[in-house]
Amino acid sequence: MHSVALLTASYAKDIERFSLLSASIDTWLKGYTRHYVLVNDEDVALFEHFRSDKRVIVPASRYLPKWLWALPAALQFGKRRVWLSLLSSPVHGWHIQQILKIAGVLHAPERRVCILDSDNLFFREFDIGRYAGGEKTPLYFAPKAVSADSPVHGVWMRTVDQLLGVKGRSFPADDYVGNALVWDRDTVRAMTEAIHSATGMNWMLAMCRKKKFSEYLLYGHFVAGSPAHLAEHLLTKDSIAVSHWDDTSLDRSSIEAMMRTASPAQSALCIQSYSSTSIEDIREVLRLSERSGFTPSLVPD
Fold first, then answer.
1. Is the dihedral of CA 168, 140, 270, 27 positive or negative?
2. Facing residues of 69 across strands?
3. Ramachandran area for residue 71 (φ above 0: left; ψ -120 to 50: alpha; else beta)
4. What is the pLDDT averaged over residues 119-137?
5. Which CATH architecture has domain 4-298?
6. By C-alpha distance, which of 284, 271, 184 is closest to 234?
7. 223 phi-psi bin (left φ>0, alpha ψ -120 to 50, beta other)
8. Whose CA is closest to 207, among 78, 85, 59, 76?
9. Domain ranges of the chain
10. What is the pLDDT of residues 79-125, one digit of tens each?
């Protein structure tokens, strides 16, 4: 069995959602070595009280290059956090989080890493080591789900092809976007080398210059295009998370209905933050009660 780590890229505005994720991990998850939490440097102090023997808080600057720096908060404009560079146009927090996920996996001592965004959480016992640490890496995908005229995924796919040097893409293409996804560290390293080979530049710089991309599509299609790496992955259409992708807000009964639809193999729940679903409603449904500050305790049946 391979060692398995968890990785979350988060920031201050998601700290309440992250508090639910971390509490659910501490209550329900086993089979992992460390939970790496990558946050903006100025947010480290806010996340420090989540630190534990198994949870490590990592400042973004540890993995980001010197040529990329965050615009001071006092000079920020709009709601999006901005990073500046003399080598590319400005990039936003969404891009930085995707880049940090890749960098975090590259630097992890563990061979496998399960990526958990802040709006994920677990609601029943799950052995992530047994799921992710086997001979082959599980790779979730939705076959032929991305059409050429898709306003978001279609654009992402074209960027992925440019980064990987893929020509003559045929649609519909497979979709690899999901929740609680597992990456193999050696595969990620090979993926970044492929980006360098295709673009002639460092993988971070190439991504900063492209911007409209999906890290999950990038990883999935790199694997799909490499027979050697594909042989080391186990394709599955079954996600371990039941997800709400819409921007409609859910009430408590709707959250309960989501959980009732979960199959026995699904132990994670993802309600996207842009749905504006009340965190208090999620906490109540999942029987989360606060012990102190942002750190809640989960009380199972």
1. negative
2. 84
3. beta
4. 96
5. Alpha-Beta Complex (3.90)
6. 184
7. alpha
8. 85
9. 4-298
10. 678 899 999 999 988 899 999 999 999 999 999 999 999 999 999 99
